[in-house]
Amino acid sequence: MSNTNDRFLTRRRFLGTTAAAATTLAAPAIAQDATGTESVEFEQEISKSVVRNASSFRSLQWQPYFDNLKNGAILVDISSRALHYWNEDESIYKLYPTSVPMTDDLTRRGRTSITQKVVGPTWRPTPSMLKRNPELPAVVGPGPDNPLGSHALYLSWTYYRIHGTHDTRKIGRRSSSGCIGLYNYHIEELFALANNGTQVLLI
Known about the structure:
By secondary structure, the protein is of the alpha/beta class. The protein has helices at residues 2-26, 41-46, 127-132, 184-193, and strands spanning 73-77, 82-86, 93-97, 100-101, 110-119, 151-155, 161-165, 174-176, 180-183, 199-202.
């Protein structure tokens, strides 16, 4: 009787562990621990060159999207909320989760390029932002309240940026007014890799 119970309990523990593992794989990319603190373990895994991970992000080849990799290339996929980066000699490939524009009318697609790199950017609301919310501050300097996070890559399109965010809840969601947001430690990494002139395509 004791052996039977032991086998039953062992099987229950195994099934429970298996179910927990399956739940973990099915969970959103932004996992949280019991305290509500966001886990960086999965986020760090995304930034590696991988074929597929639990968030269903896929690594891509650059050739369908760019004629060449001169100055490197950034592909932003609005639908999958992912940013892909290739350096010029293809020795580096990065895949990052992003925030994307809240609505289609705020979304811009097409080709642009990086025109300026700024550490500790200053944020100013665009005219359309002020129209929607006149109570927005006129300017926010570098710091924890800045919507652009720690680093920003300015694009040739007026008002559009690839930038960090101090509000990590926004990543993986439709949460921006037009820009593409990354975790601060991801934008810091991309900032070091990308150059003025790096080509950018939003699809």
